[in-house]
Design a protein that fits this description.
By secondary structure, the chain is of the alpha+beta class. The protein has eight helices and ten strands. The chain has a single domain, classed as 2,3-Dihydroxybiphenyl 1,2-Dioxygenase, domain 1 (Roll), CATH 3.10.180.50. The relative contact order is 0.17. The structure holds 2-oxoadipic acid and nickel (II) ion. Its cofactor is Fe(2+).
């Protein structure tokens, strides 16, 4: 499958489970904007069957190369980003939860998910259209959430794109991320204000903001429950002293962007 087709499929799933996506695209296209993606992000668990390398496979086969790695000690996460020589293709940011650093009841709950993966490496994510490839109880969701909201999000949603990110540099009707944030807030969207709405600065060559994930109804083995779903992100990049655009990510900012799916942000 071509990379563009894969991205289109990921977008279709993302917009279906995240009503903000179409609303924000419409808000901008009504102003005459075209939308370019800066990056798409996925979450996963550190495991040979579904870890970063496995999720990156379809992208690497399509010409993506590793661009950087990031550590999040407190959240027990590790991440890498991948980029393509075609600058119009979005970067891919994939993080994984370091399972070995959690308690055995926590790891047992994760194993109840992993045990449902198809045998012999037949897992096809993130090509799967629905994202989640396992059944889970709400009790396990709550158990995981106590130690890691990242883990409970994964249990509920799996391998759909966690967020798409609009590349703000390519917008013509807003001249700063602040202006875009103001437009979003005026239009009724809640932004993740953890550490301030704008994460990063021109000094680190990247500014980012994101919406608060919308709450969506998800099926659990014991019936549907409402849980935080996906969010939308906005990124403005700045050129490095050598004149080349900064293509990486900033761990200190990303740490707060992760919290866009935290329940504490729900109004
Ligand atoms: C990823 C959060 C980090 C960024 O652009 O720094 C991130 C996530 O929530 O899975 O996307
Ligand atoms: Ni992101």
């Amino acid at each position: 499958m071509s990379i563009q087709l894969l991205i289109n499929q990921l977008w279709d799933t993302y917009r279906r489970i995240n009503p903000q996506a179409d609303q924000i695209v419409k808000l901008l296209t009504d102003r005459g904007e075209g939308i370019q993606n800066d990056h798409i992000a996925f979450r996963t668990f550190q495991d040979p069957q579904i870890g970063i390398e496995r999720l990156a496979k379809p992208f690497v086969e399509g010409g993506y190369v590793e661009g950087g790695e990031y550590h999040f000690e407190e959240k027990k996460l590790y991440a890498k980003h991948f980029q393509h020589r075609d600058p119009t293709l979005p970067k891919i940011f994939i993080s994984e939860l370091i399972l070995g650093e959690f308690s055995s009841p926590f790891q047992d709950a994760i194993n109840r998910l992993l045990d449902q993966l198809p045998p012999n490496g037949e897992f096809h994510g993130p090509l799967c259209t629905e994202g989640r490839v396992w059944e889970t109880t709400f009790a396990d969701y709550e158990l995981l959430k106590k130690d890691s909201e990242y883990a409970s999000w994964m249990a509920a949603h799996g391998f759909c794109a966690n967020h798409f990110t609009i590349y703000v540099n390519e917008l013509s009707t807003v001249s700063s991320l602040q202006e875009l944030n103001d437009l979003l807030i005026t239009s009724g969207f809640a932004l993740n204000q953890e550490g301030g709405a704008i994460k990063g600065s021109p000094e680190v060559f990247l500014e980012q903001s994101s919406t608060v994930a919308s709450v969506v109804e998800v099926p659990f083995s014991d019936g549907p429950h409402k849980v935080p779903g996906c969010y939308y992100e906005f990124a403005r990049r700045y050129p490095l002293p050598n004149g080349k655009m900064f293509e990486g990510f900033v761990a200190k900012s990303a740490d707060k962007i992760f919290e866009s799916t935290d329940e504490k942000l729900q109004r």
